[in-house]
Amino acid sequence: MILKNLLIALVAYISQLDERYLGASMMNRPIIIGPVVGLILGDLQKGIIIGAALEAMFIGIVTIGAALPPDVGVASAIATALAIQSGASTNVAVTLAMPFAIVAQGLNMLAFTLNSYTIKKGRDAIKRHNFKSMQRWHFFPLILRLPSGILTFLVLQLGTKAAQSLIALLPTKIMTSFSVAAGLLPAVGFAMLIQMMMDKKVAPYFFIGFILSSYLKMPVIGVSVLALLITLLITQKNNKAKNN
Amino acid sequence: MAKKKLSVKDLNRVFWRSFALQGSESYTDMQGMGYTFSILPALKKIYTGNDDKLYESALRNTALFNTTPHIATFIMGMSLALEEENSVDPDFNVEAISSLKAALMGPVAGIGDTLYWGTFRVIAAGIGLSLATQGNILGPILYFLIYTTLHFIGRYGGIRLGYSMGAKAMEKAYEGNYLEKFTLAASIVGLMSIGSMTSSLVNFKISAIFKTAGGTINVQNILNDIFPGLLPLGLTFLMYYLLKKKVKVIWLILGIFVLAIAGVYLNILK
Questions:
Q1: Which of B65, B130, B131, B197 to probe the A interface (max A CBs under 10 A)?
Q2: What is the domain partition of chain B in residue ranges?
Q3: Average pLDDT along chain B, 270 residues, taken 10 residues at a time
Q4: Which of A17, B45, B155, B235 has its CA at a distance of 20 to 30 angstroms from the CA of residue B22?
C-alpha cells in the first residue's frame, strides 16, 4: 500500500506542476486524475466515474488572473484514492474532495508568496550575469510544491482507516445529503464561469443553450456545433451590413 | 524594419520553454521571471556580441507580467520582434517594449481566458463527461485530445504569428475589430455550452409528494410543466448573484451543503 500511496502522492505533486511547468495543459483536472489514480489502485472503471463526478462539481473552478482557486488536482487524487480504498461511493469522494481542495489552495498561496523571494534571487542572478543560476531559481519552486505530495501521502497512509470508520458512523440521511449536494455543487462552478463570460450583449445565448438541453435534451456537443453555426451567421450578417 | 534574426528553430525553443511560464509565479511579479525564462534563447541570439543589451533586456523582461498562459506566446513573439529592432537601432527606446507588453497582457487575457478556461475546456469536458460518467475510458481521452489540440494550435500559432507580424499585429487586430469579433464568437459558443451543461449537470429536483384530500401533489411535475430546469437555473443564478455581491466561493459551497442537509432532513430532497 505504501508504494501505491507514494505513486498517488506523485500524481498529486505532478498535478500541481501542470499549471506551473506544463503549460496549464489541464492534466490536473479531475477527469484525468480520477482515471490515473484508479489505474494505480487497480480499479480504472471507478476512477473514471469518480473523476467525472468531481469534474462536474469542479468544472467552474479555474485559475483566472491572480486569484488562486481551490486546488482541484490534489483534491481529486486524495478523494479518488480514499473512496476506492475504503470502498465508499462516488458521493463520498465528492464530499471528501472539497476540504482537501481548500487545504491545498492554502499551500499554493504559500508558494505564491514565497516566490517573491525566488524572483528576487533570479533577478540578482541576472545582475551578476549568471543565466544558469537564474534558470535554476526559476525551477526552485519545484521544492515549494512538494508539501502537496507529502500531504497526499500522509492523508492516504493515515486516513483510509479513518475514512472507513467515519463513513460507517455517518447516518444514512447525511450520506443522502452528500449525494444531493454533489448534484447541486456544479451550480457554483457554472456561476463562476457565467461571471467571467457574460455581459448583457451575450446573455441570451446562455439561455438558448440551457433551453436546448432542458426542453429538447440536446447534448453539449450538439449545442456547441449549433453555437458555432450561429457565430458564423452573425459574422456573415455583420460583414454584409458593412459592405452595404 | 530589422532583418529577422530568429529561425523557426529558435521560435520552437521559445514555444517549448513557454510551458514553464508560470513556474515561479508570485503575487508580486506574476509570470515575470517565467517570461524571461521563456524567451531567453531568442534573446541570446538577438543580442549576440552585445552583452550589455542582453542583460539589460533579460532583467527588463522580468517585470510583472500576467496573461493567459496558452497564448502568452503571441505577446512573446511580438516583443521579440521589437527586441530585434532594439539590437540594431541605437536610438530605439526600450520603454516601447515594456509598454507593449503591459498594454497587451490585459486584452490577450480577456480573449484567452474566455477561449481556454471558459470555452475550449468546458466543451472538451462536456464531451468527455458524457462518456466518462458511464465509466468509458474514451471520455478522459477525448477530453485530453480536444483540449490539447486547441491548446497547441494557440500556443504555437501565437509565437509564429506574433513574431512575423511584430507590433503591427495589434494595429491590424484593432483596425478590423478582429479582437472584438473573436471575443464575441468565443463568448457565444462558451455561454451556450455552459447553458447546456447547467441544465444537464446541476441536479436539483424536489422529491416531496404532498397528499391532499383530492390526491397527491408532485411538486417536481408541476415545476416541470412550468419550465423544466427551473430549479437548477434558479440556483445557478442565485450563486451568480452572490458572487457578484462578493460572497466568497467557500461560503457558497458550505451553503450548498447546508441546503442539501436541510432538504434531506425535511424530506424535500433526495
A1: B197
A2: 8-198, 203-265
A3: 82 97 94 97 96 96 95 96 92 91 88 88 90 94 96 96 82 72 85 92 86 80 86 95 89 91 90
A4: B45
